[in-house]
Amino acid sequence: MKESEVLFYDKESFEEIDWKKYDEGELLRNYFSPLVKGTRHFVANVITDIRFVALDHLLLPYTINQEEYENSYVCSPYNHYITYTKEELRMLQNPPLEKILGMVVSGIGIFSKKIEMNRVVYVNNWLISTNLFSQASKEQIRKIKEALVKKYPNHLIGFRSVNDGLYEEMKRHFVHLGFQLLPSRYVYISGPDLLEKATKKTRNTLGRDRKLLNQEDVEVIHHEDFSKEDLERAKDLYDMLYLEKYSYNNPQFSQDYIFHTHRSKSLTYVGIRYKGKLEGVFGSMIYQDKMANPVLGYNTALPIEIGLYRMLRYLAVNESIVHQRMYHQSAGVGRFKYDRGATGYPEYTAIFVEHLAFKKRFFWRTLSSLLNRFAVKIIEKKRL
Asked: Could you report the per-residue pLDDT of 250-281, keeping only the tens digit for each?
């Protein structure tokens, strides 16, 4: 029997892909068809080259970068571990310590540019914070890794969004194949059996969230119900939450990204109208038996008592139960998600650096070791 061959595709050969051969081929085609021609129009803070690597049933999008230090963390490790880290230091609420640590991180940043930190190929990169993909065998990972190393001998090779909640076996494969596990964040995942496993406290919490939907001025709308005005409002709501409240280092989706993902149904949208106006929204990526919400937002100026975020999370959790899907709830507000039955896991980018120069290998191994030893434990303890 002929050994399977690793294939590569770029924007010129995009239309040659036999989409029916691959897991979620139609979703991949629908989502990436405009993005492969250029990303900046759809995600304002991402400049990258999108290509694809294929083997057997797997078709994985990947991004190639050289520097692009202003990119969002979805393509830039520099942004993730230097820019974003300095921004997050304010959470310490200790100005002297923030200043000292800021100087340390800035020093690391200078060195990281010298060793070309952003010269990276990120595999399974959909330009969103949470990437879903198919299970891959150890042999498939090995073949893809070797093909990428041969094609990009001076680039770090990284597989994004690896965690024990969804990809425990694959995580072991990466380790056995010589990858470093570089912590990226702490995420929360629930299964379709959430209610069966739920404690009485969790059931009561979800019940109170559900009752909020009975408010007189609340209306739930689904994908087909969204008007052009609703989709325009959806972008504003995402911006309010993920950019204005949290960080402009998050992906800055354009209005055309929202229009495109809705029209192509590569994201499935659900919204909450309050007093006749869209005030909450989420757009779900559905990949086989898994789901995540790359787009989520609500009017942060409205009183918290209305419970917009609670209602959005309840609707998403309920969808995962009804349709029997694992639900990747992303990072943040850990106590909130834990109280509603989610389980927390460190999430990693599995990076391969063995083909790089010694100083680059040393940098990445040291960073991985420090983050695994200190950062993950702090986040786990505090359920951030």
From this structure: 999 999 999 999 999 999 999 999 999 999 99
